[in-house]
Amino acid sequence: MRRRLRAARLFIYCFLSAGVFFSDILSTAVPTWKCTAPAYSRISLTVLPGISHRRFRFRELFGDRKNPESADTEERFIEMRWLNIEPNSTIALYNHPPEQNVNNFLERVSSTGQSSGYYATNVTMPRIQCDKPASVLTNDCLHFWIAVLNSDMEIVELDCFRGFPFWMYESREHLRKVEVRRAFIPGTHNSGTYDYYESGTVHSRVTQYVECQDESVFNQLFYGARYFELRASFSPKRRQARPANMFCDDRWASSQQRTSRENACRQATMWSVHGSFVTSSSFDQIASDIRRFLEATQEIVLVDLHKFKISGRWWWTTDLHLELWRLLIDELGEFMAPYKEDVTFGELWRSNKRLIVSTIHPMHHLSPCIWPAPLHIWANTDRLSELEVFLDTRLCADVQKSKRITVAKGQLTPRVGLKMLRNTLRNRGGVRSFTPGTNRVMDRLYRGKWACANVVAVDYLLSSDVVRVAIAVNTLPDNPANNTRFPSSASFNQTTCSPAKSFLPPICKSRGRS
User: Fold this and answer.
1) End of a domain among 132, 162, 192?
2) DSSP string, 4-37
3) CATH number of the domain where residue 147 is located
4) In angstroms, rounded to a whole number, what is the distance separating the alpha carbons of residues 317 and 251?
């Protein structure tokens, strides 16, 4: 009996002591829990390219390009994406900051046990004209927000749709000593073949395999692209720049023919082209867009003159190359960097020569500011599985051993044939239809085993997360590109490439800026 009494007393004593101990703990201030942001956001908003689904009418092929009254010119749907979130979470779309009212959402979807996925909403993205004179570049949120909610409808993670006009300079501490040929740089494929989507028009049907972007070059810069693949064309029909009896040859027999050539060159206007189709995007406008962006920011831009095409029976001559080069020099010369194989971002910023212009045409002896053409890693396939195998084999190995800038072409190339004709007549959307699916796969691989990439060119930039991936890859502490090969005192060739410095005899009169 005494033993039981002692045991009871001991139990009561321990219980009361423990109560005092836990009450002391509970009475102390509980620290506030803060969510540490990951290296990159695990949620994002992308924009699907608009696709027309009108029935085919043969007579429309020969009609005017008119938009029907019932067409929606803003038919670009928002897509929500999530990566490595908690299973069975809720992903919601808002047109206001979710903190104001978390229950007032536009659409929501459950991850249903999947930590990664995507969901195409029925909400359309309005056209944002970033290149208007009154516009101010900002990386603030625009129109829409995305949030991950737990079972108690509490916000776990938050992000929004926005541009990235300053991302390079904001990452300068990570990029300062990195060579341009070793950094991860997002860009666009066929950058000049852009046009705003017009639902249900003949234009959308015929050019669905020609257009690869739906934002202007300035807007592409605003949204974070820093590499631009441009294909130049000279179309005599556009400006009637060439007389019918003009010879397109570099060998001239008389001064009269040379004078005729000079008169034609003065009126030359260059246009963006894809294949045999000349688009409505002029190089004058593209150069102006790049200049205005360089003047407004401290970003570094790469321009790749990848192909040259001429309409009709004409072909490219040295004169046309010189005219195109003078157009770029007049507009962008003060920003052009002289060629240096292992140039770093820090050197470009210190010299304020923040534009790299390369060309596939052998003109490098004419100016120190003409860079050799990048190495293009192009699978030339319309199968996603073949594209992945090709880049698996080539990408990292080529980037590591290349002394030039390397461009990964992460897009499918449609094959000309009955399949393309059938899809065109049925209005399946062309490049717009298969690009989002391709970009989803490419984004996932660039986050992982393909983080070794240098320049990445994509179709329809807003349907890809490549800019966010680039920011994450370039700012990770263990990124192999963040080397220390260059000391802070590294010098840089201060060669000036400006309109005032003439490096060629004036075959065509230089055009001044307006």
Assistant:
1) 162
2) HHHHHHHHHHHHHHHHHHHHHHHHSPPPPP-PPP
3) 2.60.40
4) 10
Q: Does 481 lie in the same domain as 366?
A: yes
Domain hosting residue 81, numbered range: 36-57+69-162
Residue 124 located in a structural domain = yes
Instruction: Give pLDDT tens digits for 328-345.
Output: 999 999 999 999 999 999
Of 146, 162, 178, the one marking the end of a domain is 162
Looking at per-residue pLDDT, the higher value among 51 and 38 belongs to 51
Q: Confirm whether 415 is domain-assigned.
A: yes
Is-contact 438 217, C-beta < 8 A? no
**Alpha carbon separation from 95 to 111, 143, 158 (Å, rounded):** 21, 6, 13
Chain centre distance of CA 157? 25
DSSP-derived 3-state class of residue 369: coil
Q: Which amino acid is at 495?
A: T
Whether 436 shows a pLDDT value over 60: the answer reads yes
The upper half-sphere exposure of residue 345, i.e. CA atoms within 13 Å in the direction of its Cβ, equals 27
Whether residues 509 and 409 share a domain: the answer is yes
Distances (CA, A) of 247 to 234, 319, 330: 15, 12, 27
In a shared domain, residues 158 and 188: no
* pLDDT one-digit tens code per residue, 233-255: 876 555 433 333 333 333 333 55
- Whether the CB-CB separation of 268 and 239 falls below 8 Å is answered with yes
Confidence of residue 426 (pLDDT cuts 50, 70, 90): low
Looking at the structure, tell me whether residues 190 and 139 fall in a common domain: no
pLDDT in tens, 254-289: 555 555 555 554 555 788 887 767 777 888 899 999
Count the domains in the chain: 2
Helix (H, G, I), strand (E, B) or coil at 415: coil
Tokens of 17: 């002591």
